[in-house]
Amino acid sequence: MYRNARNSSGKSRAKAAEELYISERTLAKIESGEVTPAPEIAERMNEVYEVRHLSMWYCKEECPIGQKYCYEILDNVDLSPMAIFAKYRQEAKEAHEALDQLTELMLNKKDKNDCSQTELDEIRRCGHELLDLEHVIETFKLRLWDFLDVQQLIYEHNEKCQERGYVKKENNRTAATVSAI
């Protein structure tokens, strides 16, 4: 993946290593799979190679949390903004219908012990509809990098959540995280 990303960017190994602030030898080891890059190197590769899904791939392959929670990287679909918008509309409609169904199914229920197997199966189906929508949104966020500084956008969103009192100040690391970057 790392070699393919570098090759698609048109950069030589020497030029890429220079821009990544690592040695050519280290980059060769990363590309051959001998060495796993540090997260900051993988993130820098996103910028240097202009391959926005590389950090998602890194998280999915190298991070225990990412291995459990990351979505598959869509690499066999039309990822143009208009195609993503069209898919979003379709998935949003299906997710809205699933939310209506979940409201009926989960009324007066505390947990799965209060449900029949048929109800649990329907809750699972509705859960898939919600995940389909979330997956499209995650794909759209990857495409946003082509238009916006997503890191700044998330920082601003986090600030808004703080201003509204959704975040306890003592648990907040947003300002420290952004200033460190």
TrEMBL record:
Under the heading Gene3D superfamilies, the entry gives:
lambda repressor-like DNA-binding domains
Cited InterPro entries: Cro/C1-type_HTH (IPR001387), Lambda_DNA-bd_dom_sf (IPR010982)
The Gene Ontology terms for molecular function here are: DNA binding
Question: Which keywords does this Swiss-Prot/TrEMBL entry list?
Answer: Coiled coil
Pfam family of the protein (one): HTH_3
Question: Which PROSITE patterns would you find in this protein's record?
Answer: HTH_CROC1
Give the residues annotated as coiled coil: 85-112
Domain HTH cro/C1-type, residue spans: 3-57
This protein is called Helix-turn-helix
Q: What is the lineage of its organism?
A: Bacteria, Bacillati, Bacillota, Clostridia, Peptostreptococcales
